[in-house]
Amino acid sequence: MSAPFEIMVGRIETLALDAVVNAANRQLAPGSGVDGALRQAAGPRLTEATKRIPPILTGEAVITPGFDAPMKFIIHTAAPIWSDEGPQGAKVAGLAKCYMSSIKMAASRGFESIAFPCLGTGVYAWPRGFACGIAIAACEQALEQAPKLKRIVFCCFTEDDAKIYRDGLGGRLR
């Protein structure tokens, strides 16, 4: 199967796809960055919905409607914090699980499109190039179990981030 990857520079909260992925915290409490932008676009019902969901484990994914935002659903996942104590391998596995759990969630609902921000590279301080390599590898692996997924968008906030993804994907772009 050819990889259905796209890279764009833009704001993830504006995308009209089946799902976008939220860079959430484990408590699903309101935050800044991607989470804050999605909450503003989706309106107060998103925070009401996440208050009813118990805290999630690192790498786990849960789903809510998109409410007033243009995407149908928001998949929330919590990346590990780069600077936290612990073995690097466990952190890498946790970040990869964010992507894999999100794609698994999308596949279980028959979604054809999903967008990811650069998970973990904001306040969680993952080195951007390193996190990008993990993202691409995890998505490629998860795609094997997601036959209906035709479009995976890496939505980058800056052109510098988009270049890292373009370089990482080489000729495997849509």
UniProtKB/TrEMBL annotation:
Pfam families: Macro. SUPFAM superfamilies: Macro domain-like. Gene3D superfamilies: Leucine Aminopeptidase, subunit E, domain 1 (3.40.220.10). Residues 1-173 form the Macro domain. This is Macro domain-containing protein. It comes from Candidatus Viadribacter manganicus. The lineage of its organism: Bacteria, Pseudomonadati, Pseudomonadota, Alphaproteobacteria, Hyphomonadales.
